TrEMBL record:
Functional pathway: Amino-acid degradation; 4-aminobutanoate degradation
Cofactor or coenzyme needed: pyridoxal 5'-phosphate
Protein name, as recorded: (S)-3-amino-2-methylpropionate transaminase
Superkingdom: Bacteria
Length: 435
């Protein structure tokens, strides 16, 4: 059922062009949008704008609507919850769904040990709280992060994020005690093995920070905004082993990689890595704002009562949506769906790479896939071609995103419920956009 369109004075529904004009006079310029079209409705694999134009969705609202937009179970759960109560604040008057979401997260995240969870509103807030927990539990100040990392836009998470433009430029000064070390980036680090790349990072930590000063090592198991960088095999397990030996809290930021996106419940599952803490958001609640920190009970419970929380954290409507989302992921085997997307899309990407020398690499896992573009015959990033191909996709009706420190990565994050037909059509449009 489509909601009725608000009418203008003349009685006609506003067009994207009209809305864009209004936006210019109302919305802060600093908030950007990928396409200038305004959404009317969206489903499993498409978005339809107010002008009636349909887009194949290879973005999923940045890896959020993995179960699709307005997924039936989510809609039903939200509707039922919104009629019972909308907000009491879990810190004031608690409710079951918050507890149930925590139970689910404790069971689904890697590691068979006792866990606790706490719920928040955004990914950045989850990362902030993971750092709070790690610092509190260890009594140490330093946080180690990686080149190309993205962890959010709040003050602490800007400091944790690597890229200046657009995330940090002129927004400092930033939070202190953040130390950055090199990532394993197989295309760009001369073919270091995972163990060698980990040793390089560890040496810098030990020499420049001192393991005893490090509260947390924070890492995306596959980097998101930084370019869908998949570390060499062995990199994550080696860092995990070092953190254990050094008494450092290993925090996996699975905000983008989590909830079936990479073909398993969490990206850490692929290498058997068990983080001490995991940060979660994006795909967790079918589009409703929810985030979480899940991790070892002794770390999470180290914090005094009242030390964690927030007015809206674990809002009952978002919790109802999360429970419905998780149920949908089980029922439709969306981890399997992500692997199927990989098996269908990767050959199409490889075919493009074979004929187009600008494609240096096809990479990713599950339904988190990307191509990195360079000047042919070099490793020099080509953000101009990346932007041009992306624009051609948008003009043709395929919603794609770019990423990467150098702005030269095209990434593909379809909803996991996208149909084979929609996926194939999207791949055709992408293929044509490369020329
Ligand atoms: C999106 C993202 C964040 C920040 O999440 P917000 O909900 O935008 O605050 C943090 N870490 C990773 C890996 C992300 O992809």
């Amino acid at each position: 059922m489509r909601a009725p369109q608000p009418r203008t004075k003349s009685g006609a529904a506003p067009t994207s062009e009209e809305l864009h004009k209004r936006r210019g006079d109302a919305v802060a310029r600093g908030v950007g949008s990928v396409i200038p079209s305004y959404v009317d409705h969206a489903s499993g694999g498409t978005i339809t704008d107010v002008d009636g134009r349909e887009w194949i969705d290879f973005a999923a609202g940045i890896a959020v609507t993995s179960v699709g937009n307005s997924a039936p179970r989510v809609v039903e759960a939200v509707r039922a919850q919104v009629e019972r109560f909308t907000h009491t604040c879990f810190m004031v008057a608690p409710y079951e769904s918050y507890v149930a979401v925590c139970e689910q997260l404790n069971a689904l995240t890697p590691g068979g040990f006792a866990k606790r969870s706490a719920l928040f509103n955004s990914g950045a807030e989850a990362v902030e709280n993971a750092v709070k927990v790690a610092r509190h539990a260890t009594g140490r100040p330093a946080v180690v992060v990686f080149d190309h990392a993205y962890h959010g836009r709040t003050n602490l998470t800007m400091a944790l994020t690597a890229k200046n433009m657009p995330y940090k430029h002129r927004f400092g000064p930033f939070a202190g005690e953040i130390y950055r070390v090199p990532m394993s980036y197989p295309l760009r680090d001369g073919g270091l093995s995972g163990a060698e790349a980990a040793a390089r990072a560890v040496e810098l930590i030990e020499k420049q920070v001192g393991a005893d000063n490090v509260a947390a090592l924070l890492i995306e198991p596959i980097q998101g905004e930084g370019g869908f960088v998949v570390p060499a095999p062995g990199f994550l397990p080696a860092l995990r082993a070092w953190a254990t030996a050094a008494g450092v809290v290993f925090v996996a930021d699975e905000i983008q990689t989590g909830f079936c996106r990479t073909g398993d419940w969490f990206a850490c599952h692929h290498e058997g890595v068990e983080p001490d803490l995991v940060t979660l958001a994006k795909g967790i609640a079918g589009g409703l704002p929810l985030a979480a920190v899940t991790g070892r009970a002794e770390l999470m419970d180290a914090v005094h009562v009242g030390g964690l929380g927030g007015t809206y954290g674990g809002n009952p409507i978002a919790c109802a949506a999360a429970l419905a989302t998780i149920e949908t992921m089980h029922e439709l085997d969306l981890a399997g769906a992500a692997r199927r997307i990989e098996s269908l899309l990767v050959p199409r990407l490889r075919a493009i790479a074979e004929r187009d020398p600008r494609v240096a690499e096809v990479r990713g896992r599950g339904a988190m896939l990307a191509v990195e573009l360079v000047l042919p015959g070099t490793l020099t990033p080509d953000p101009v071609a990346t932007a041009a191909i992306s624009a051609a996709c948008h003009a043709a009706g395929l919603l794609t995103l770019t990423c990467g420190t150098y702005g030269n990565v095209l990434r593909f994050l379809p909803p996991l419920v996208i149909s084979d037909g929609q996926l194939g059509r999207g791949a055709d449009l992408l293929d044509a956009a490369f020329g």
